[in-house]
Design a protein that fits this description.
It is built from seven helices and ten strands. By secondary structure, the chain is of the alpha/beta class. Bound molecules: adenosine-5'-triphosphate and magnesium ion. The site of adenosine-5'-triphosphate has 12 residues, from strand 2 and helix 1.
Amino acid sequence: MNAILRADSVDLFYGTHQAVSGVDFSLRRGEVAAIMGTSGSGKSSLLYCLAGVLPPTRGAVTFDGLKLPSMSDDELSALRRERFGFVFQYGELLPELTVQENAALPLRLAGQRKAPAHAAAGEVLGRLGMTELLQRRTSQLSGGQSQRVAVARALVHRPDVVFADEPTGALDSVNASAVLEEFLRLARDQGTAVVMVTHDASVAEHADSRYTMTDGILK
Ligand SMILES: Nc1ncnc2c1ncn2[C@@H]1O[C@H](COP(=O)(O)OP(=O)(O)OP(=O)(O)O)[C@@H](O)[C@H]1O
Ligand SMILES: [Mg+2]
């Protein structure tokens, strides 16, 4: 099986508390996976391990043949910046930058010039219904508007894998569909793999594979 991302027997402890327990997981190019589960079951923690944000206490995460835990901090940051996109559960936009500047950031960090980076960001933002707000500072957005900017920023550089932690949690059904449609489009057209945590069964039903997390165990 040609997995782009896989986890083998991953455990994550915070001190003595085990948040992720013996997780095996694999994801193909173009696959959209949904993870559901109750609050505190370890979904965000697993996403952090899969994305190389937190090193697992035990076990291995492999992306495209590279073992993440054995990479240096610099190599890992470059990998995350260039080949991953992450929608964090709690936003994490830069408040002093505009909507368009926030969404264009991954391209600017990769050295792309301002005009094409802003054009690409404007396109994704447009498909997420944000065209009117491109010049607004993100400190002046609603929760759902911020969430759509975070989604645009995670997708703008067409990453190999998108990790999305409740990317539609603050959205009404129309905007949630727009976000889902962007994920599915990228998966279909670019072969992007998506792992999303969601509480929304109507979002999860469009995924290729569905998992449930219970007390750190993924099934
Ligand atoms: N930094 C931390 N230090 C200690 N314990 C933590 C830390 N972060 C999370 N936990 C604990 O680990 C467990 C899993 O947390 P996690 O955030 O992964 O859950 P979750 O499934 O994402 O929940 P939610 O649906 O509420 O976002 C919880 O019991 C939580 O209290
Ligand atoms: Mg969480």
